[in-house]
Amino acid sequence: MSSIPRLTLLTSTLLAMTACSTLSKDECLNADWHLIGLEDGSRGYEVSRIGSHREACAKVGVVPNLTQYRAGLNEGYQSYCAAANGYAVGLAGGQYKNVCQNKDAQDFVSAYQHGRDLYRLQQSLQNLNQLIADYNNTIDSLLNDNAVLEEQLVHRARTPTERQQLLNSIKNNEQEAAELAQSIIYSERERAVLAQDLADLEAYHRQLGYQ
Fold first, then answer.
1. 152-172: b or e for each residue (b if 16 or more CB lie within 10 Å)?
2. Most confident of 100-114, 152-166, 174-188
3. Distance CA 115, CA 124 (A)
4. What pLDDT shows up at residue 12?
């Protein structure tokens, strides 16, 4: 496979349907339906996207030209369905809506799956990093709580019952902190494995020409 340049144009929001109108009043009144189709095709939208445009432009009495839109859409698919773009879409966590055809579809889906595999590994590693950070934050909080409890034990506990309650709270916090520390050890081992898997996959993708 020839070297494929890294693409940074696509993001996870590229394929998202917006909750607002797809076109403004001015865009509807001055619409170039071939160009609109071209832009939608380059973003991987299905032909049903024109239904959203029809709804948006109905407010100003404009009816989309389906023929021009389809022509632009198919032209846009030529750039969208490139293997390099398939990898970029997958790597960004985007969704593929089966708009590519024949050989283009095979190349796109293969590259998309490679990108998607890397995306999932990156997400797993990110989630694990966040989990470890959360564990550490909780441990810090427990230790801070114990510092306060120990201060109360020394200066404020007046009865045996109060002292015992404070001691129990301190012990529970220490036990929870110890359990979290053990969880961190296990999670760090898992993180090391994931990091190696990620490095191996990135190296493989470089061999394939994706990076």
1. bbeeebeeeeeeeebeebbee
2. 174-188
3. 14
4. 35
Rounded to whole angstroms, how far apart are CA atoms 136 and 195? 20
Both tokens of 63, joined, read 């009816």
Total residue count of the chain as it appears in this document: 211
Token digits for 9? 């144009």
pLDDT band at 103 (very low <50, low <70, confident <90, very high): confident
Contact 135, 176 (CB under 8 A): no
Query: Rounded CA gap, 87 and 94, in Å?
Result: 10
Cα separation, 88 vs 78, in Å, equals 15
CB atoms within 10 A of CB 68: 17
Torsion of CA 43, 45, 51, 52, to 10 degrees: -50
The average pLDDT across 24-45 equals 95
Cβ proximity of 86 and 110 under 8 Å: yes
Q: Cβ contacts of residue 14 below 8 Å, gap of 6+? A: 43, 44, 89, 92, 94
Cα(first)–Cα(last) distance of the chain, in Å? 12
Q: What's the CA gap between 125 and 118, in Å, rounded? A: 11
Amino acid at 107: D
Which range is least confidently modeled, 2-16, 71-85, 108-122? Answer: 2-16
Answer whether residue 11 shows pLDDT above 80: no
